[in-house]
Amino acid sequence: MEPHNSSFLWALIIIFMLNINISSVQGLGFNWGTRASHPLSPNIVVKLMKDNGFNKVKLFEAEPWVLDALRNSGIQVMLGIPNDFLAPLASGVSIAENWVTKNVSAYVSRGVDIRYVAVGNEPFLTTYKDMFTNATLPAVQNIQAALIKAGLGRQVKVTVPLNADVYQSDSSVPSEGNFRPDIHDLMISIVKFLSDNGAPLTINIYPFLSLYADPHFPIDFAFFAGTNAPVVDGSVSYTNVFDANYDTLVWALEKNGFSSMPIIVGEIGWPTDGDVNANIQYARKFNQGLFNRIIQGQGTPKRKTPPDVYLFGLIDEDTKSIQPGNFERHWGVFNYDGTVKYKLDLGSNRTLVPAKGVRYLPRQWCVLAPDASENDPNLVDSINYACTYADCTSLGYGSTCGGLDARSNASYAFNKYFQMSNQQKGSCNFNNLSVITRIEPTTGKANCKYEIMIDLGKHKKARSPPTSSTATGWRSQNLSCYVMAVFLLSLIIGRVA
After folding, report:
1. Does the structure show a pLDDT above 90 at 489?
2. d(C-alpha 13, C-alpha 482), whole Å
3. How far apart are CA 263 and CA 177, in angstroms?
4. Predicted confidence (pLDDT) at residue 4 exceeds the cutoff of 70
5. What gap in Å lies between CA 295 and CA 450, rounded to an integer?
6. Which of 25, 161, 285, 492 has an alpha carbon within 20 to 30 A of 291's alpha carbon?
7. What region, left, alpha or beta, does residue 27 occupy, with left being phi > 0 and alpha being psi -120 to 50 degrees?
8. What is the mean pLDDT of the segment spanning 309-317?
């Protein structure tokens, strides 16, 4: 073969290799919560994840309708166990065996790629007052024993998603980090058990909550763009709370003999509503900064390799408890219907794409009647009734619909109830103060809209994920394409030669 022909063909190989579509961001997963009055079809959600290249998902409990949709999808699953089930699991290994048989073995055999079982969810929060303290480790041990008995001990690992309050630093620098004194010995026992079984520790880190809890918290420190007032720890300057928080845990592990313990960030994100600091601008800034770090493979000062991260969350949940704050229903990067809230750069010239195949209720809204008086004595009670049974968290101070005038405020509340009730006859009857309109009303605020809910009975079924005998996700698929491409091109070169 002539030298110039050889150079040309090798150039083609390089160009081809550089243009292979890597469809997912390594190390990035999502939390998929289902506390919604009108949840998207699981098939649509799975397709949404695949269309956006998300190949890891964390579930909070074993729901058959969700797990069935994940069959042969190539999406790796962390399957959660709620705190309320810790005590039964701790009471005997037979209960754990039954749980594993029903919720792990049954679905693994049907093509669900379960990689982790997350036992409990932040069970050592101080607000729980030791409710789950004694049950957590025995439950973990029994689930591990059940996985081994089921022949899944190597394939599926146990872990415990913990809140970042399980460790602390008395001097506020990471190198002074250690586990909370009241649970120190228990934490060491849990970490040792996980380490002995080749399992990771999972930690939830929420910079937003640091800002929410302390009005004097330096806002720049919550993001990844740097700060004028870093936390100086010896020769290291920490410019954001995530690095400082994560490395505090690394130091705590190192001090107790677990310097190489693998860590997963089980929850991290930023809400878009329900608080003055929960808005689209801040959410985009935080999550884009997080995405950039993952795409670039950037770790922390103490650990240069980034951990696997599960963003919280995938989709808004309008029936989730708001005990921590109104923002709890607004963590999703997608709205309740799978539409994109804000643009995020996923790398490789990709941005978020919305869900496909979503069907809605008829285009009609319930609003305050034109002839209704704002001074009607029944108006306040009517609004309160609507917001008792529907999600009105966007009406709060500092939220997207906060500060509406009286008429718009009432209309927003009435419509929320009307949509929550599937537009049923009689659900727009608030003491003769309301009326149904087919002309779309407006609030005068860009991000405050009168929504129409999903029609749960008319979902267009999304195409089922392609079946794969290995169901190992994008890594094996792209590697196979890569190897085959190089093989074919090498044959071409051989023929030309």
Report:
1. no
2. 11
3. 16
4. no
5. 36
6. 161
7. left
8. 98
pLDDT in tens, 252-306: 999 999 999 999 999 999 999 999 999 999 999 999 999 999 999 999 999 999 9
Regarding whether 253 and 196 lie in a shared domain, the answer is yes
Distance CA 125, CA 130 (A): 8
pLDDT at 226: 84
pLDDT (0 to 100) of residue 105 = 98
Domain with residue 260: its CATH number is 3.20.20.80
Answer yes or no: do 316 and 394 share one domain.
no
User: Which long-range CB contacts under 8 A does 286-291 form with residues at least 24 apart?
Assistant: 286/207, 286/208, 286/222, 286/223, 286/224, 287/311, 287/333, 287/344, 288/344, 288/345, 289/223, 289/224, 289/225, 290/224, 290/242, 291/25, 291/28, 291/344, 291/345, 291/346, 291/347
**Whether residue 382 sits in one domain with residue 331:** no
- In the three-class reduction of DSSP (H, G, I as helix; E, B as strand; rest coil), residue 280 is classed as helix
Q: Is 267 a catalytic residue?
A: yes
pTM of the model: 0.88
pLDDT bucket at 14, cuts 50 / 70 / 90: very low
Contacts of 171 (CB under 8 A, 6+ apart): none
- Stretch (H or E) spanning 495: helix 474-496
Q: Which amino acid is at 194?
A: L
β-pairing, 201-204 vs 161-163, is parallel
| Residue 122 a catalytic site member | yes
Q: What total of structural domains would you count in the chain?
A: 2
Mean pLDDT of the chain: 90
- What are 58's strand-pairing partners? 31, 78
Question: What is the span of the domain harbouring residue 419?
Answer: 365-437
> Given this model, what pLDDT does residue 297 score?
95
Closest CA to 335 of 447, 438, 223: 447
Of 393, 414, 437, the last residue of a domain is: 437
**How many C-beta neighbours within 10 Å does residue 86 have?**
24
- Distance (Å, rounded) from C-alpha 311 to C-alpha 321? 19
Q: Which residue has the higher pLDDT, 484 or 121?
A: 121
Helix (H) or strand (E) holding 268: strand 263-268
Instruction: Please tell me the predicted confidence (pLDDT) of residue 227.
Output: 83
Catalytic residue among 2, 97, 267, 317: 267
Residue of 97, 122, 317, 451 with catalytic role: 122
Which two structure tokens, joined as six digits, stand for 136? Answer: 């957590």
Q: How far is the C-alpha of 274 from the C-alpha of 328, rounded, in Å?
A: 8
